[in-house]
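Exercise: predict the structure of this protein bound to S-adenosylmethionine.
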Amino acid sequence: MNYVKGNNGLYYEVVPWHSKQKHEFLRHYLNVWSEMVGNHSKSVPSLDIIDLYASWGQCSCIEIGEEWPGTAALAAECLNRYARPGLLFLNTYNANIEELKLQEQNLFTILASFNIKSKIVTLPIEEAVDVALNEANLQYPTLWLLDPYGPKQLPWSVVEKICSSKRQYKDKYGNLHTRRPEIMINLMTSSLQREIHNQNVVCGSLGISEEQWKTLEQKSCSGNTTSVIVDAYAERLSQFYEKPPIRFLVKGKHGNIVYSILLFTDSDAGHYVTKVHKMPEFDKWLKVEWSKSAEEIVAKKNLPKSQSFLDRFN
Ligand SMILES: C[S@@+](CC[C@H](N)C(=O)[O-])C[C@H]1O[C@@H](n2cnc3c(N)ncnc32)[C@H](O)[C@@H]1O
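Solution:
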């Protein structure tokens, strides 16, 4: 079972502890919008958030008994605080129809406590992206969250559609600029690493040719496969974005890289603020909170069964 019902009647996606890093990264980035762009700029732009893999909207880590907001709930919290909230577009999809209905209802219930404009759809990603592109106000900033379980669930064609959706706008001096959607992608580097010899999976996910895949396969044998994969993806997306992505590697409790979060944005403000103001804080959280708890989980796992009650709350 990959979900549980809480005492409050709401459902939670059951997640491993390491996934909290992904949500903390997103929370920090959303704070850049709600606390800095939304508060300090004279003319606050409207902001849409599009979460195409919203799932249950909130998470529960059974291992340590902690619950926290998922990508959809974090996005709702951000827009609720933001000075000029636009649309929150959520898509969730599940081959199991009963679960899909429960997920949809759960998202409705979560959103009911926020005062924001929202739309929820339940479509496979290839259809959801077209509906979302129609609904989003691309003249203004849009943030797209792409958080699949595996590389096969996020085909390159979907990413390409979003990145290609540029719009022109004039600044206050009359200069013309191009605006592209901001995208946070969870690139499943550990799965891609395992599938590195599978041409269909790698090409279909990274949007590269057979020739480029062969070079990638060779490079991966002689070096750090994760960075070879991330570099290839960043290179592919550099066709759309002038600035390199902000990268964040999510590590499992033994220090292994599970997946890589990549944030593509050409906004100067986004880059400056993220690097100069917010990410040092995030690193601090990661060092203090995450590594402490991760060590405790490893310690707990190594204990004899009779002592398994020992956890971070004791
Ligand atoms: C990693 S979970 C998303 C977790 C969520 N973003 C969070 O952190 O709160 C991935 C989700 O993708 C959904 N999914 C799987 N295949 C999909 C597809 N073809 N199209 C859209 N969603 C899909 C799954 O049902 C699952 O809910």
